[in-house]
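Worked Example 4.2. Consider the chain below.
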Amino acid sequence: MNKISLVMLVLLSFTFLFLTVSIIHGYSQQDLDQLKSTKQCSACDLSNAPLANTTLTQANLERANLFSANLKGANLAGANLSSANCMNAILTGSSLANTKLRSANMTGANVAGANLHGADLSLAVWTDGMICKEGSIGTCKK
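Applying the procedure from the previous section yields the following structure tokens:
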């Protein structure tokens, strides 16, 4: 193996390692801190964020990336998650009462035991990949 090939192999290895760590960690610490202090985090990157049992009532998470975020037992009552990416998010036992989930992507999300009373699910992509009809309140009408 010549010197140039060895250098390229080392550079590719470091690049792969960096990308792997970024994918595993995911969320922006700055975005997470902003959300916790202000409850305002529109279009934030909160993928894989540890938000279990967090109180986020009335939070603005419109267009936020919550891919695989852990929101187990979180209180999101009255929050705005319109157009948010909630793919594979853990929402078990969370309160989503009166939450705006209009056009949110909920594909693969775990919503077992979640309180969806009054939640606007209009045009959301539901956990099974089906689109909820306009006027879906509290339950996804397909």
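The domain at 1-142 is CATH 2.160.20.80 (Pectate Lyase C-like). The longest helix spans residues 3-25. Compare this with Example 4.1 before moving on.
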